[in-house]
Specification:
The chain has 229 residues and is mainly β. It has a single domain, classed as Exo-inulinase, domain 1 (Jelly Rolls). Helix content is 10%, strand content 45%. The chain contains three helices and 15 strands. Strands 1, 3, 4, 6, 11, 12, 13 and 15 form an eight-stranded antiparallel sheet that branches. A seven-stranded antiparallel sheet has the order 2-5-14-7-8-9-10, with no helix packed on it. The longest helix has 8 residues. The radius of gyration is 17 Å and the shape is globular.
Length: 229
Amino acid sequence: MTTSRLILTALPVLFLASVLPVRAEPPYPKVFFEDDFSGEKLGEKWGSWKSETVVRDGVMVGITPKTADHPSVNTIELPPVADLEVAVSFRFAGSNRFNIMFRDLDYEGSHAGHICHVGISPTNVSIFDGKTGIFRKDLREKRKAGEKLDAETQEMLKSKESKNKIELDPEAWHKLHIRIEGDVLKVWIDDEPAGSLQSEGIAHRTISNMNITTVDREVHYDDFSIRLR
C-alpha cells in the first residue's frame, strides 16, 4: 500500500512537539483483536447495523445502504476497558468520511452510550468527547426538541472537541492510529501527529464497544487491530 504525506495546519509546531510526538512510542502490549480481511466475508466477531459492508479483494469495504437513514456501522464488542489503541489502514473510495467510535453500551448518560470518537475526512480530523459533550443525553434531547442552548453551554461544547486541518490524497492508502490514555485521545495518520483532545469524558473506564461508521459509499479498510494496556 502506498501513502501520501499528511500536512497538519491547525496546531503550532511547539505544541505538536510537546503533546503529539511522532509515532515512535511503543504500542500497547496486549493484542485484543486483529483482522487483515483475508477471508471471503467478515469474521464472526464483527457486528453490522444498517450496513452493506463486505470483504472484497482482501479489504473490508464499508458501504451504507442507499435507503438507510444512518451511516453503516461495523462493530467489535470489548471487555469493559479504559485505555486502548485502534489501528487501521484506510482509503477513501467514494465516501468522504468515516468515524471510529467508542461506546459503553450500559452507560445511560449519553445517546447510545457514546463516550468519544474520531472523524476522518481528506481535509479534517475531528475528535469529540461525546460523553460530556455532543452526545450528552440532556443536551441532545434539548437540540432534538428545538431548544437553543445558552451561550455558556455552547462555549462548554467547544472545549469538548478538537478539529484539525489535514491534506490527504483520497485515492491513496493511509494508516490511522488512535490511542486513548486516561483523559487524552491522540491521533496519528501515516505516523505523523494529526490531533489530540484532553477531556474528562475520555477517561471513562468501561468502554465496551468500538465501531467503524462509514458515511455513504465506500471506504476501504485493512490491517485492523485493537490493543490494550
